[in-house]
Amino acid sequence: MSDPTESRAFNWFTPLRFGILLAVLIFAAFPQVLLGVQTFLIRDYGFFAYPLAHFQRDCFWRGELPFWNPYNYCGAPFLAQWNTMPLYPPALIYLLLPLTWSLSFFCLLHLWFAGFGMYQLARRWTGNDFAAAFAGVAFAFNGLTLNLLMWPSHIATLSWMPWVVLAVEGAWRDGGRKIFLAAIVGGLQMLAGGPETIILTWIFLLVLWIQQFAKGESSRIEMLRRFPAVVALVILLAAVQLLPFLDLTAHSQRETGFADLRSSMPAWGWANFLVPMAFGNTWDMGVFFQYDQGWTSSYYPGIGTLWLALLAVWTLRERRVWLLGAGTIVALLFALGEHTPVYPALRQIIPQLSLITYPVKYLTLAAFFAPLLAAFALARQQNVPDGQRRNFLEHMFLVGVILLALLAGILFWAWRFPFPTDDVRATMFNGITRALFLLATGVLLLFLAQPSKSGLRRIAPLLLILIAWLDVLTHEPSQNPAAPPSVYTSGLAREKLAMNPQPELGGSRAMLTPMAEWRFVHSAIASPQNNFLIGRLCYGANCNLLDAVPKVDGFFSLTPREIDDVLSLFYTRTNADFPGLENFMGVSQISAPDQIYHWQSRSNFLPLMTAGQKPVFLDDANTLRALTQPDFDGSKIVFLPPEAKSFVTVTNETSVRVVNSHFENQSVDADIEAAKPSLVVVSQTYYHDWHALVDGHEAILLRANHAFQAIQVPAGSHHVRLIYQDSAFRAGAAVSVMAWVVILSALCTRSFRPRQIFYPT
Asked: What is the predicted pLDDT for the residue at 492?
């Protein structure tokens, strides 16, 4: 008969208590960030995510949706990017609250939500509160999840992953209102904007559904009906975001075959599952990275989680464990990318896989599966029959010995055959520390496996969770260094640089030279704060958004194909200089040759709206060549595609004047005085959602100079208006609104079926 005190120790981790415990652990890991004393800024958080949130917030307080970003790439779609999260409801956290605190809080709140979701899923699958609590902490605190804190959209999408699995499985098993609840949960994950994580979530759900369908765990007829219904409803709910994204993808630089195999897990990358600081260095702002892999600073699962996951795969004969184990092996194999023939060959068979950039991202599945496997092992440990206990303990002991031996072997390897820039001393210390955590975990697991009334056994469950948390928290230098919020002060670079002329929306642009852009991307200093401030002064990545300074390049996942072609003329080489094209793009400030954060002015730049050019009709290839010629003068000539001949009556230069022009985020207005029919050329990225009006009447918007805009106006005085209208968004919004109305109505009229505590395995 079990000891009541012991039972209370294992059942102490109720949902409320676990939620509080997880919140305490997150606060202990990031106290200064949560208190607002510091804010995240490492890598893409500062150079990508925060500037986008700043721009979105400005649009929000002006009462407009951020459809178009006029500050990067000479203009580019914003809402359609998806990972900008413009339609994700929890984004209101950082739109309404002070941004320097609220965006970091947004990320940490989703870290908590991820761990609590994993707790609920593991609790449903194992029926064990303690095992679920361990899984929840292991999912929130592992190297990969902590790395994702620098991408608000990625951590938000990952945080929904266990909830989606939990809800969708419940939907195909129980039906009723759970179908609609699952659709809402899946729709919210869709709106969070991490495409790869979303795809991996639904691939796993499909495999799980096939497994349960084959075993007949529920009515096959109902499963055939319910799962596709959930998928369809999720798509309908998220159509408002999906349709603009798919539209942009179809017109972007990304095509099938676009993604290469960079940032694959190295062939020796398995060593970092045991010694996370083996074969790498703290080269980027004090953050450790492996060689040959720069997407994640870590994918270390925690030595205790790894031990328990391996133990579950070896000892448990349960279908879910087999599925999770097989899925982990496949994820590891795919993550190796080019280092095995498997994934490259599979990409030849399924070209769409190339749209998932960086094969190392498949480790997201391993980070999701490992805590669940660990939960199954812990649940089994507490319920193993007395006759099988000895065998279970032998297996547990053997797995621990194997891990210790592998750890020692990796340290010997790192000591005898280091890479030239390895810090061998740091690697040795790191490995020995992991060995100590392994031994501490082993002691606690031994206490948990033996019937005992000792005080240590009563607190061993909590100690095991704390050891796992501390192991990951100390496994390498901080993955998320922070700095004072003042680094994000609006207008900071504008004030310090004091450019003359000052690039302004509708006036002129700044431009990093190809060499400056290369130096910005490929160099970093140890101080995260100083490194970011240098990035701000050189307007690297998207930092220009913090100062409302338009520039030629940017840092986004998707760009319209034609502007990418033009910018590739510059940024695929380090010494490209095309003065005529730079003049046409309105470049008034360009990086100085001495330092990337010094600027020099240009005097020959053109206004962003010019008129009177002679049209020359060339195909795309010849247009791109002509734009790079020394004699290209955008004030006198404009290149149009041959198909525009039937729309254009202008044949030569004309006398025309742009009386005034006014640029907003999503519109351009100008008054034109023309002696005869003339062309008006706008140095703004051409995209099919831009529409032209002349005196309020629809006019044809032409693609000019390969990637920009032109309108033909008749003789006389006219008002020209360009306006951005996203037709895909409108269609998607109509679909999504109807879907939300139907689902909310159904939830108000249908009753829940009886709740099921956990599903059999």
From this structure: 94
